[in-house]
Write a structure and sequence with these properties.
Layout: H1 3-28, E1 36-38, E2 46-48, E3 52-55, H2 56-59, E4 60-64, H3 70-75, E5 77-83, E6 92-96, E7 101-109, E8 118-127, E9 131-136, H4 142-153, H5 167-172, E10 174-177, H6 180-223
Parallel strand pairs: 5-8
Antiparallel strand pairs: 1-2, 3-10, 4-9, 5-6, 7-8, 7-9
Length: 233
Amino acid sequence: MPSSRRKRRLIELLNEKRAALISHAVTKGLDPSVAMRPSGVEWIGEIPAHWTVKRVWMMFELGRGRVISHEDIAQHPGPYPVYSSQTAGEGVMGNIDTYDFDGKYLTWTTDGAHAGTVFERSGKFNCTNVCGTLLPRSSLSLGFMRHAVDLATAWFVRHDINPKLMNNVMAAIQIQVPPVREQERIYSKILDLSATMQPLMRAVNSAIDRRQEYRAALISAAVTGQIDVRGEV
């Protein structure tokens, strides 16, 4: 297997390992000796006996964004981000001079290829009509809940020509809920895990980029005659 393919495979394996560790922490907690019990939810399985299971509507007020076009953004530039259905660049479509939401929220993509993807948002912002919003009803670790909800949504996205996860479906999803302090400890562990793995992933990506640049430079040199690739006759 060529070196660049091996490096890309390593990136895939690192991402899979990170996802598996996060999934285990969010559904089973950090204490391997804790007593467990059935959650009653297929995708969750067993959870620590002192955790509860709640539907999303019990923990969050659900809302929705509005139609905001590129023309709106161009005509009303400003400091407040507009989040869309995309994931690149944290989903920012642009910035305008007004805001619809102010505070700490989770948002999720309701339609399209990224349906079900969950983000943590804070401050003053806007969402387009393909974004749902979740405003906590009480004290929660939004970092923990973002991962917990994001794990659950894959089971509920309706896959057809245009995948969807609408508000009524999101509201009924059941989520495992540790005590708030334990939520915070689990999220802190997830941040530590990311901080540990990111330098390695950056190093592998950098090596892939350098190899591609070197290959492109060799091809350019050969095409322009700067090096002779004909070999001896």
